[in-house]
Design a protein that fits this description.
The complex is a heterodimer of chains A (about 300) and B (about 325). Chain A has two domains: about 10-100, no CATH class; about 105-265, Orthogonal Bundle (MetI-like fold). Chain A is about 70% helix and about 5% strand. Chain A has 16 helices and two strands. Chain A has a two-stranded antiparallel ribbon with strand order 1-2. Chain B contains 14 helices and no strands. Chain B starts with a helix and ends with a helix. The chains are: A mainly alpha (about 300), B mainly alpha (about 325). Chains A and B meet through helix 1, helix 6, helix 7, helix 8 and helix 9 of A and helix 1, helix 2, helix 3, helix 5 and helix 6 of B.
Chain lengths: ~300, ~325
């Protein structure tokens, strides 16, 4: 490497590195604590001083996935010996498993609504972005600004008429209703991000394809889409993360059938107070996919976050 | 332009082929491609907005659908603006907004500045720092109430460890004086990485040749920072402030899970106040007027700010 008078010295790099790593370790502590608490017993989780070393237990996960009820010791004895490891854990507390909890369903709802709305918003966003990028659309700048401005509305403010509208249309507490809502919210982001990506693809490729006898549609699907694949993928991740994390609309517009995990996880309670290991277990399973995604796809994600800032 | 090219190509080719080249006209394709997006945004954003404005002029209550709906003019607006609760919420929001922005800009810019020194492994550590902002605010906010528990909470334990105070002697989310800071801390923890990333993009956009020239002119490092780094990163910083400002003015999920607006109404941000009016007291007309006021405020402040931002950029 050639010597530069402006490059930071190795001493500067060391100091910078130590400071940044210290901040990172502090900032990760709450996340580590979530994961650790999921593997504690309820007693360990509320001990003082907080336990850093503990013998791991899957009790939190068992409590997360089951609903239980208390029985008398006599009834418990009459049941015979526990057959599975989760039976054994539950029976220590004079309880029996009465069935699965709702966590699995809520998690599935998050998946269906997350992937459904991501697919729709990326699909609609791609074709709209292509049109904005390549054609003369009347009032283009106004439309683009309108699309962006829809993001300034506080979700609660929009929720009032949507709540009334969905009741009329029978869309409240349905997967379809939530998918359409999240699609609309994500569209502004997806159109803006994708327009940036498609703007970067040279128009000459399509023109060559058109001269070769492709129709506009074929040029779009066979020339533009493959070139924009990376951009489409990172846009999809952003849409997915939004839909996965969204809380306000989910809490107000869903209650049963279509309820997603974010409004559900805080409502997990045990017998006699909050069952923190179960909450932490639920949170861990829910947050883990996003953490893994972020670390694996860091290059595209970090670029996408600052994308709006760098472009305009 | 491409349309012309296609047409020219079409004119020079046999009839059958020409039809295939044109296929759908570009105009038709453009409309087919844009229409669904515009339609969906109209249905889910503009139509509800118009509906909200109409409701805001009535005394409609969702929980009493059989009551006659009366037109009350600007009565709701007058009530909101003269209601002491509204101003308490606005104050709580202002406190939250100002402190989160100040802290996030200071910490975020410092981190970006340090990361820009390009120490070994900086991209991995950047990713790890970014993790909190990727996660669900409601789920994480809910877990922070556990960290904030007196005695058993990790946060209280750590603070007690460094200050020598009794960890059971204070409750971050239970005390009137501490709760406004409890939400500032969690929001700063979560969103500083966002400001950091934008600042980092700003710092990386400064061409090294400027520093080289300054070095040749023997400008001190401090001088270089004040006359090159800061002014050139300023538009990015201002953009980060805009994004965080809009987001935190709308703040709902994180704070509602952390404190629910309490204790009393010390952390009752405008969105939480609005949610109570709309979905707990069911004063739909009143809440709609509230929503309109909030939207106009965000939109107005953001427009003024963007004008200022453009001035800084053009400089």
């Amino acid at each position: 490497m050639s010597y530069s008078i402006t490059a930071p010295s190795s001493q500067q790099k060391w100091i910078a590195g130590i400071l940044v790593i210290t901040y990172a370790l502090i900032t990760l502590l709450p996340l580590v604590w979530i994961i650790a608490t999921g593997f504690k017993t309820p007693a360990d989780s509320i001990s003082y001083p907080p336990k850093v070393l503990f013998s791991p237990s899957v009790e939190g996960y068992v409590n997360l996935f089951t609903s239980r009820s208390r029985v008398t010791p006599d009834d418990l004895a009459a049941l015979g010996p526990p057959t599975t490891f989760y039976d054994r854990i539950v029976r220590q507390y004079d309880m029996v498993i009465t069935g699965p909890s709702r966590y699995g369903e809520r998690f599935m709802n998050s998946m269906i609504i997350g992937f459904g709305s991501t697919f729709l918003s990326v699909f609609l966003g791609t074709i709209a972005a292509y049109a904005f990028s390549r054609f003369k659309v009347p009032l283009k700048d106004d439309l683009l600004f309108f699309i962006l401005s829809t993001r300034m509305m506080p979700p609660i403010a929009v929720a009032i008429p949507i709540f009334l509208m969905y009741r009329q249309l029978g869309l409240s507490d349905t997967h379809l209703g939530m998918i359409l809502l999240y699609t609309a919210v994500n569209l502004s982001l997806s159109v803006w991000l994708l327009k940036g990506f498609i703007d970067e693809i040279p128009v000459e490729y399509e023109e060559a394809a058109l001269i070769d006898g492709y129709t506009r549609f074929q040029a779009f699907t066979k020339v533009v889409l493959p070139q924009a694949a990376t951009g489409i993928a990172s846009t999809a991740i952003f849409c997915l993360i939004f839909a996965w994390n969204e809380y306000a609309f989910a809490a107000l517009l869903t209650s049963g059938t279509a309820q997603t995990a974010p409004p559900f996880i805080p409502t997990i309670i045990g017998t006699g107070g909050k069952d923190w290991p179960a909450v932490a277990a639920g949170a861990t399973l829910f947050l883990m996919p996003i953490m893994v995604f972020t670390v694996l796809l860091r290059k595209h994600l970090l670029r996408g976050i600052t994308f709006g800032a760098v472009r305009k | 332009m491409s349309n012309n090219l296609a047409n020219r190509a079409a004119l020079a080719t046999p009839q059958q082929l020409a039809h295939r080249i044109r296929g759908l006209s570009d105009r038709a394709v453009a409309w087919i491609f844009v229409a669904p997006t515009i339609f969906l945004l109209l249905a889910v954003n503009i139509f509800p907005l118009i509906w909200t404005i109409r409701l805001s002029l009535t005394n409609f209550r969702t929980n009493r659908p059989n009551n006659a709906i009366e037109f009350v003019g600007i009565e709701n607006y007058r009530k909101i603006l003269t209601d002491a609760d509204t101003w308490i919420s606005l104050q709580a929001t202002a406190h939250f907004l100002i402190w989160t922005i100040v802290l996030q800009v200071l910490i975020g810019f410092t981190l970006a500045y340090l990361i820009n020194k390009q120490f070994r492994g900086n991209d991995l550590w950047t990713t790890l720092i970014v993790l909190p902002m990727m996660l669900s605010p409601a789920v994480v906010g809910n877990f922070w109430t556990f960290l904030y528990q007196p005695q058993i909470g990790l946060f209280n334990y750590v603070i007690a460890f460094f200050t020598g105070a009794d960890p059971a002697s204070f409750s971050m989310i239970g005390e009137v004086t501490l709760a406004p800071w409890a939400i500032v801390i969690v929001d700063t923890w979560m969103w500083t990485p966002f400001v950091m990333l934008i600042c980092l993009a700003g710092l990386r956009s400064i061409p090294p040749s400027i520093y080289e020239a300054a070095e040749c002119d023997r400008a001190s490092k401090l001088r270089q920072f004040w006359t090159i780094t800061l002014p050139m990163a300023l538009p990015f910083l201002m953009l980060a402030v805009l994004f965080r400002g809009i987001e935190n003015f709308k703040m709902f999920d994180l704070v509602v899970q952390l404190t629910g607006g309490g204790p009393g109404s010390t952390t009752q941000l405008v969105s939480i106040d609005l949610k109570r009016e709309a979905f707990e007291k069911w004063r739909t007309g009143y809440a709609s007027a509230y929503a309109v006021i909030l939207f106009v405020t965000v939109f107005g402040l953001a427009s003024i700010y963007v004008k200022a931002l453009n001035k800084v950029k053009d400089r």
